[in-house]
Amino acid sequence: MFTFLLKNKRFGLLVASSCISVFGAYFTYMLVIVLAYEKSQSLTSTMGITLSSAIGALIAGLFAGVCVDRMQPVKVLIVTNFLSAFVIISLFFLPYNPLFYYIAVFLIAILNAFNVPAFSKIQVNIIHKDHYMEANASYQTIREFTRILAPGAGAFVLSLLSEEWKGVGFLIDGFSYIIAGVMIIATFITLRIEDESEVTELKGIKQFKADWIEGWEPFKNPVIAAIMVLYFIIVLGISGFDVILSAHIFTNGLPTIYVGYIIASLSTGVILATIIGPRYVKTWPISIRLGGSALFLGLAFFSIGIVQNIVLMLLFSFLVGCFNGVYNFSSPTYFHENIPQHVLGRFMGLFTSALSLISIIGMSINGVLGNIYSPAFVIMLGGTLITIIGILSILFIQKSETKYKKTSLQNASL
């Protein structure tokens, strides 16, 4: 992984800047959640922050991709990082008000929605098609490390600061976005990244609508449609996993602090899979890479709900992470290889928006079912659904890919 990033300096620097932004996003979330609860002592008020973030991502995803396809993606990343810094730093100077926090996380979610399609477009510009999988795996690995470190860093900073100085965390966080923006500028100038994206002038609402509709075109590829269904079922099944897992551990008479160990075990599995996975799975059929990884992810997830022993929970969560890692670098690789570049931004924006919606629905359903039945039931139900859709996807993707390639060859020969 690190060898690949060192050999591809442009991509490596862009990954580093992106992960600094991701670090800032997790850091922000941790800061706002902790400070909001400490000041309000209200669970409902604090949950509003999560909802504001999800709504922002959902709304922005509907139009962010269209905007990215009309602009230069490098400039999009630069602007969103500096605007994020402005939003976060402003919280330091404002008095505590839940509304300010809701607005801040809402705006950050909107700005982050531009980053995914912009990064994807830059990636396909600077990475050769034969190395898409290694690039995606490397990016997933670094992101997972960031996801582990950022919340801990946020908690560490808060623990060092006295009550009246905890707001300094917003200055530290805002500075991380500034560093990311400067890194992108430096990378763009010194390494001369050629932006091959088509820049389209704005042509009004009708043109915007036409561009937006065109972003749905890749879904006509049955393999991509099947991947979407897989994604949605997986996200639906695991939404709110940390909360459900905490309840599952508690009902089994185990210390709730164990949830941190289990999440760490899952992240370890993801990291390991993204580091060593590409060299082994690259030659596998896409149906096995995606449907097969979903199948075993579902079985491992189901098993977490059955067992009551912490060691077994750690083992199965590690396996969930491994198969999740394979899925996470295989699916974007297929997108980058098979979606035309001029609609990639729109597609990725719509995709992230849809995932946000599914996540909100999943958290609501899983929370209700957990209260009616039990946390173990919710985990086993989610694992069962993912396993079933994984089996069906192996068959469907295999058949669809064969049919799609045959149709493409026929169209090419005409």
Low-confidence stretches: 191-200
Portion in helices: over 70%
**Beta-strand proportion:** under 5%
Number of strands: 0
Order of helices and strands: HHHHHHHHHHHHHHH
Radius of gyration: 21 Å
Tell me the distance between the termini: 42 Å
Biggest β-sheet description: none
Number of helices: 15
- Mass-distribution shape: globular
Mean pLDDT: 83
What features would you highlight for this structure?
mainly alpha
Q: Could you explain how this protein is built, in words?
A:
- This protein has 414 residues and is mainly alpha-helical.
- Helices cover 85% and strands 0% of the residues.
- It contains 15 helices and no strands.
- The protein has helices spanning 2-7, 9-40, 43-70, 73-93, 98-126, 132-160, 168-190, 204-214, 222-238, 241-251, 258-281, 286-306, 310-338, 341-372, 375-413.
- α2 packs parallel to α6 (132-160) and α11 (258-281) packs across α13 (310-338).
Summarize the structure.
The chain is an all-alpha fold.
Task: Lay out the secondary structure.
Elements: H1 2-7, H2 9-40, H3 43-70, H4 73-93, H5 98-126, H6 132-160, H7 168-190, H8 204-214, H9 222-238, H10 241-251, H11 258-281, H12 286-306, H13 310-338, H14 341-372, H15 375-413
Helix pairs in contact: 2-3, 2-5, 2-6, 2-7, 3-5, 3-14, 4-5, 4-7, 5-14, 6-11, 6-13, 9-14, 9-15, 10-15, 11-13, 12-13, 12-15, 14-15
